[in-house]
Every structure is written in structure tokens, then in C-alpha cells.
Amino acid sequence: MSHDARLAELKIVLPEALAPVANYVPYQISGNLLYVSGQISNGPDGLIRGKLGADMDVAAGAQAARACGLALLAQARAALGSLDRVARVVKLTGFVNSTPDFGDQPEVVNGCSDLMVEVFGDAGRHARAAVSAPALPRGVALEIEAIFEVA
Hints:
Blueprint: H1 3-9, E1 27-30, E2 33-40, E3 42-43, E4 46-47, H2 58-80, E5 86-97, H3 105-120, E6 127-133, E7 142-150
Parallel strand pairs: 5-6
Antiparallel strand pairs: 1-2, 2-7, 3-4, 5-7
Protein name: RidA family protein
InterPro entries: Endoribo_LPSP/chorism_mut-like, RutC-like_sf
Domain Endoribonuclease L-PSP/chorismate mutase-like: 5-138
């Protein structure tokens, strides 16, 4: 089954690929790799703001990470024309806006990782970093960037 068909089967509708808000490009292709710039947690009602360990729990953080994942897929589709050109998800790097004592960054970023496996199957399994950040742009809960291998 194609990746685009898998999205439809899962009833996942990707958001519009947003334009950058600063001096960078949303994605870059080099050789057979697609680098997607960090996508911040943004949902249908706007930015998903919060700090894990203060005013946001792990479940809400995982949902914010999933929103980042949807934005990453939207950028990948904008770059490639179709997600069917994605051969595999190579790596995700997740930045979690969290308090110094919060230690569940991996569980939070799983919201994005689980989405990649849901959509791409084994090709969605990836290397990953999930790190704490004392603050993120616009007060969002998460920012996640991705590297995809292109077929």
C-alpha cells in the first residue's frame, strides 16, 4: 500500500505546510536525503503552548508531538509531491519545553515516533533524540525536525 493511501486509510488529514517565520527554508534535499526544518506544535486551534512538568502532562505532550509529526509529513509531501517517495524515516530530533526536573522527554516524543511507524510501518522506525529545552519559540511545547531517505 502506498504511504499516501495509508494516510487515507488511517483517516489522517495533513495540515497545510506552513511557510517559515524566519530566515530559513522549510526543507532541503541533499542527495537522497530530505531534511525538514523543526516543526513546532501547532494544531487546528493554533499553537500548542505549554511546559512539560509544569502546566502540561505527558499525554498532552505526546499529542503536541503528534501535531509536530503531522507538520513534518506535510512539509515532506510539499517537498516531494507525494509521501510515496519516502523510502524511510532516518532520524527525528525532538525538543521538549520542560522543567529542569522533567524526565519523560522520550515518552512525549513518542507521539511523533508512533505516527511515523503508523504511516510508514517498519520504514518509519528511526534513530532519535528527545531532549529538554528551557524554552522554545513562541512558548510552544515541542519542536521536532526530521531526516527522510528519498527513493
